């Protein structure tokens, strides 16, 4: 089973277009502007940050077992089109797994689609004409969380349902320098993801 998982991860990362390395080079860490986060908080934390002119919401789950002296993995858990971070948190039930395995779970909140108003992540394809840079937002969230918690930079993962799965593929192709692996649930890649 481990061999199949490794082959799948390699396939996903190499299925991305060749242009992503230039984009990765343009993503530079910035000093995050954090709204109301205490690095000693554990449990389910509903938070807001300011990024690229927008207030963006997310839910961070920090297990009670978190030890700030130990580098800790983190999993992005993206919601589907029309859903939200809270629904995804309950739907996926990663909190129990995070408690057992000792990792942080980050549930970002998407933005409204410009035509339908449905909450989503901009990945091209069916999310057009969206102009929000959710790759930059995800990178920014990593920067924010890593300034407050002891993240293991080699073990940051992404998963998601439907549009959240598309977003995970989008990160695998456009933020592969920070995302170790992904697992998508019913999401694939838009042409914009694999052509970049």
Search tags:
196 residues; alpha/beta; Rossmann fold; seven-stranded mixed β-sheet; 7 helices; globular; Esterase_phb
Biggest beta sheet attributes: 7 strands, mixed
Poorly predicted residue ranges: 3-14, 18-30
Total of DSSP H or I helical runs spanning 4+ residues: 7
CATH topology: Rossmann fold
Which strands sit side by side, in order, in the main sheet? 1-2-3-5-4-8-9
Q: What fraction of the residues are assigned to beta strands by DSSP?
A: 25-35%
Protein name: Esterase
GO biological process, one term: xylan catabolic process
Subcellular location: Secreted
GO molecular function: feruloyl esterase activity
Short description:
Helix content is 35%, strand content 27%.
Outline the structure in words.
This protein is α/β, with parallel strands linked by helices and 196 residues long. It has one domain: 3-Layer(aba) Sandwich (Rossmann fold), CATH 3.40.50.1820. Helices cover 35% and strands 27% of the residues. It is built from 7 helices and 9 strands, in the order H-H-E-E-E-E-H-H-E-E-E-H-E-H-E-H. It has helices at 2-14, 20-26, 85-92, 94-101, 134-148, 163-174, 191-195, and strands spanning 34-35, 43-51, 54-62, 72-78, 104-108, 111-112, 119-120, 151-161, 181-185. The chain has a 7-stranded mixed beta sheet, sandwiched between helices. Strand 2 and strand 3 form a beta hairpin. It is globular, with a radius of gyration of 16 Å. The two termini are 31 Å apart. Mean pLDDT is 86; it is low at 3-14 and 18-30.
């Amino acid at each position: 089973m481990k061999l199949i998982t490794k082959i799948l991860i390699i396939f996903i990362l190499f299925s991305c277009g060749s242009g992503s390395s230039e984009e990765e080079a343009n993503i530079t860490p910035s000093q995050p502007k954090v709204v109301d986060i205490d690095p000693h908080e554990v449990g389910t934390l509903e938070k807001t940050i300011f990024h690229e002119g927008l207030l963006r919401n997310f839910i961070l789950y920090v297990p009670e077992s978190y030890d700030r002296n130990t580098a800790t993995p983190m999993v992005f858990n993206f919601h589907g089109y029309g859903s939200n971070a809270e629904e995804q948190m309950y739907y996926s039930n990663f909190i129990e797994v995070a408690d057992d395995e000792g990792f942080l779970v980050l549930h970002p909140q998407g933005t409204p689609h410009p035509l339908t108003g449905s909450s989503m992540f901009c990945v091209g394809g069916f999310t057009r004409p969206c102009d929000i840079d959710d790759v930059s937002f995800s990178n920014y969230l990593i920067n924010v969380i890593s300034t407050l918690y002891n993240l293991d930079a080699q073990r940051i993962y992404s998963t998601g349902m439907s549009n959240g799965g598309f977003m995970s593929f989008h990160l695998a192709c456009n933020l592969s320098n920070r995302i170790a692996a992904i697992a998508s649930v019913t999401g694939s890649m838009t042409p914009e993801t694999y052509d970049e």
